[in-house]
Amino acid sequence: MRVKDVMTWNVVTVSSDMPIMEAKKIMEAHDVRRLPVVDKGKLVGMVSKDRIERVGPSPATSLSVWEINYLLAKMTVKEVMRKDAVTVTPDTSAEAAVSLAQNKQVGALVVVENSKVIGIVTTNDFFYKILNPMLGIGRPGVRLTIAKCANAKCIKEVMECIAKYPAKIVAVHNEPPADGKEADFYIHLDTEKADQIIKDLQAKGFVVEVRER
């Protein structure tokens, strides 16, 4: 899967000379927390709702409400934006994009093609459009944990056992082993009636547990 498969295409942008309160209103109107900052077609930064709220007055301030509103009204996006916006292309793999976001410690990446901003991809996009389907989150059925089942032979035996039944596989995955132990194998089936499948797996020597969805 690539960035173009999960990104938001119709991205809203603002200019660096826009007042921050106007930028905040745009975020609220579009229900977003971040906006790429573009001047004359060129990406110059990223502004977030958190950054705007961070420049608000301290509770200990001696300024009047009028003075505070005046100062905020004069402040522009340029003064609060992150200037080193992190970018990817629409063809960047999802894995590379997630790794980049983690390394740069950012919650969103601006998608650029031919030097033009065409979209934005956030950590929520990766969660809802990639991680959730991979884990079967929100899907009906039962999720089974098969202990210490990380090699191909073990997984093949599990699959052959399940193949005897009409249940369909919603999702499968391994989790990294903890404390040096062998990784477990997780399989999400589209049926709630998995008692016989569990018994068959246990009869083959597998340690099986129903995992909370």
Summarize this structure as a short list of keywords or feature phrases.
three-stranded mixed sheet, alpha+beta, 33% helix, 7 helices, 213 residues
Describe this structure in words.
There is one protein chain. The protein is an alpha+beta fold. The chain has helices at residues 20-30, 49-54, 65-74, 94-104, 123-135, 152-162, 195-203, and strands at 34-39, 42-48, 87-88, 108-113, 116-122, 142-146, 169-174, 185-189, 208-211. The chain has a 4-stranded antiparallel beta sheet with strand order 7-8-6-9. The chain has a 3-stranded mixed beta sheet with strand order 3-4-5. Strands 1-2 form a two-stranded antiparallel ribbon. 22% of the residues are buried. The model has no long low-confidence stretch (mean pLDDT 88).
Our estimate of the beta-strand percent is: 15-25%
Rg, nearest Å:
24 Å
Q: Quickly give the structural class.
A: alpha+beta
Separation, N- and C-terminal Cα atoms: 24 Å
pLDDT average, as an integer? 88
Give the neighbour order of strands across the main sheet. 7-8-6-9
Tell me the series of helices and strands, N- to C-terminal: HEEHHEHEEHEHEEHE
Compute the number of strand runs. Answer: 9
Low-confidence stretches: none
Percentage of residues in helical conformation? 25-40%
Helix tally equals 7
Quick summary of this structure?
By secondary structure, the protein is of the alpha+beta class. The chain is built from 7 helices and 9 strands, in the order αββααβαββαβαββαβ. The protein starts with 19 loop residues before the first helix and ends with a strand.
